[in-house]
Amino acid sequence: MNNIIIRPENKEDYFDAEYMTKRAFWNLHHPGCDEHYLVHLFRQSEDYIEELSRVAEVDGKIVGGIYYSKAYIMDGDKKVDVLNFGPLCVDPDYQNQGIGGKLLGETIKLAREKGYKGIVIFGEPLYYPKHGFKTCDHFGITTKDGKNYDAFMGYEIVPDAFFDVKGKFYESEVFEQLYPDKVEEYDKNFPYMEKLKLPGQWD
Ligand SMILES: CC(C)(COP(=O)(O)OP(=O)(O)OC[C@H]1O[C@@H](n2cnc3c(N)ncnc32)[C@H](O)[C@@H]1OP(=O)(O)O)[C@@H](O)C(=O)NCCC(=O)NCCS
Question: What domains, with CATH codes, occur in the chain?
Answer without folding.
Answer: 13-187 (3.40.630.30)
